[in-house]
């Protein structure tokens, strides 16, 4: 089977549209439609439901999409490895980093790596850890920082750091008179939270479930300076990693009771090919974490 139609097929499945798939592939739409008809004829199966302007996959199409993703990822990995053996690698590292780490932990590491390897390019994608993990599994990222919990079997990891999630409040908040804060007391306050999908929010949601509490979320934002500003002015309280709190923020921090610690790890696909550039970055990052 020619794998090119599989790329067309996945593009259609991802876009739910022949037209958008053709635009993504930089092809004429009739060429994409013809390739799909030929693929269906070759397999003797209907892969796509075509109802007016609605495009969905049949059960057979869904099964093919599952296998096509693996086939194309393996093909791309093989081509990259062969290119490197011929010395044609572009030397690109694609890494996903949660916003808290991207702003406070990683900048000096990224700059130090670029200083050692000036010919390698770095592409940094910011997002929630769940989103980044899915992008890693789908081959959209080579490496990603994730919170180590409920990891699939196809992911390998190395410990980066262990960080405490702290309750953050204004200086005049009653919590400033306490040594620590229970989950029950935390959820009695109005909260300033990251949006869904970020590990910050997932930890809070899990804590709420464990304590049978419903969070009272007054503000949602992924902008850390805005979270700090709203909290400093007393319009709510939040929870942040200890690394992002600075004296100039004008905030009081307290541990949860009991304390909440997160294991942050660098992850990569077990079955994926790590290029020489990615291996160099992974080795550099692990050395920094182990010191």
From TrEMBL:
Report which residue ranges the record marks as coiled coil: none
Determine if Disulfide bond is one of this entry's keywords. Answer: no
What GO cellular component is one of the record's annotations? cytosol
Presence of keyword Ligase: no
InterPro entries, per this entry? HTH-type_LysR_regulators (IPR050950), LysR_HTH_N (IPR000847), LysR_subst-bd (IPR005119), WH-like_DNA-bd_sf (IPR036388), WH_DNA-bd_sf (IPR036390)
Pfam family name, one: LysR_substrate
SUPFAM superfamilies in the record: Periplasmic binding protein-like II, Winged helix' DNA-binding domain
Give the signal peptide, or none. Answer: none
What UniProt keywords apply to this chain's record, in alphabetical order? DNA-binding, Transcription, Transcription regulation
Question: What one GO molecular function would you report for this record?
Answer: DNA binding
User: To which protein family does this belong?
Assistant: Belongs to the LysR transcriptional regulatory family.
Q: What is this protein called?
A: HTH-type transcriptional regulator CynR
List the gene name.
Answer: cynR_5
